[in-house]
Amino acid sequence: MKANVAIIQAGGPTSVLNASLVGFLEALISSNQYKEILGFYNGVEGLVTNRAVRLDELDKAKLEILKSQQGAALGAGRYPLTAQGLRSIRSNLQQRGVSQLVLVGGNGTMWAARQIASLCRDIQVVGIPKTVDNDLRGIDHSPGYLSAAKFIGEAIKSMALDLWAIRNFERVRVVETMGRNVGWLAAAASLVTSSLPEFPPIHIYVPEHPLSLESFFARVNEHLQAHPCLLVVVSEGARNESGNPISEYRIGGSASGTLPGGVAQLLSSELRVRGIPSRGENLSTLQRSNAWTVCERDRQEAIFLGGQAVKALEDGKSNVMLSLPDKAVNSDTDFKAELVDLKDVAGLERPLDSCFFTEYGIDPSFVDWLLSRMGERSEWIDSVQRVWI
Fold this sequence. Notes:
Layout: E1 3-9, H1 17-31, E2 34-40, H2 44-49, E3 52-54, H3 60-67, H4 83-95, E4 98-105, H5 107-119, E5 124-129, H6 145-165, E6 172-177, H7 184-187, H8 192-195, E7 203-205, H9 213-226, E8 230-235, E9 248-250, E10 258-260, H10 263-273, E11 278-282, H11 296-314, E12 320-323, E13 338-341, E14 357-358, E15 361-362, H12 364-374, H13 377-382
Parallel strand pairs: 1-2, 1-4, 4-5, 5-12, 6-8, 6-11, 7-8
Antiparallel strand pairs: 2-3, 9-10, 12-13, 14-15
Helix pairs in contact: 1-3, 1-11
């Protein structure tokens, strides 16, 4: 008997989130084992409010376009999951005859997936990983991260050359990346060491290491005694010695809480107070959902894991998330997948590996790790330029 299957996209969008959706749909359609394929709108909210659309009617041309479209075609976003919401989800899925549910998202989404699997034991639940933060446990790197990391590398390279050009006017530029609790995105700025090896050292600050303001200012002064300018990259979630965010703000709305952010502006303002010409920049949401710096391997892995979710369902698996094991990718077409139990992923965070830290930055081994995953080493090496004449 053919089953009804449903999928949601949840959390923040990425450059390749829709690629996972297309990989899933293509595998479902080719299997011809499913009656209805439903997509619920706006992630968990759609499951609770029972808002869905038929996806099995999308033609190949639309799927091909969607494969390269950033964002989240179904709508994603965040939504608090309550006990009443869980009961509504169970009722809505039963009403629609859904026996298989796939959730694409990060650790919060995998937490929701586990709650649904625990309550709806007659429904198979499978997770497809997605996060630009790369903070999911149980996976070497998550779809979405490589493209965001590539964007940051390109952006920091451009900013470095811009800063060098006006170093007699602006001496310190502070650039803020995403990363509320982990520093994988800020660490990607170290790609500049491959593309601009003669540029003065870049200082990188991540949430995993406390940021002492006095030590920060002392280090800036020390650097400027030896170099004409300094580029600083800092995670939005950078924390002080007490573990509190350096800077916070409210995004607005009745359900809004306080979010870390604004640290680049704060630090650059303090530098100006100290007489050091400085500017603060924020890479903002462009780093997570742009179309022009997509890493092709990232897209292919997203498509692959979407297809592997169908295989997991057909194999009778449930309460699991797809994973890319360490060093599993040898080429743009040779991928491997594993399954991890949701209990080992749900609601947990993966900090930047300690082996990649130095006292005030990122170890060169991180660049080797990242480039080996991106599969674009030659592109970065070929872009090497002299910073000065």
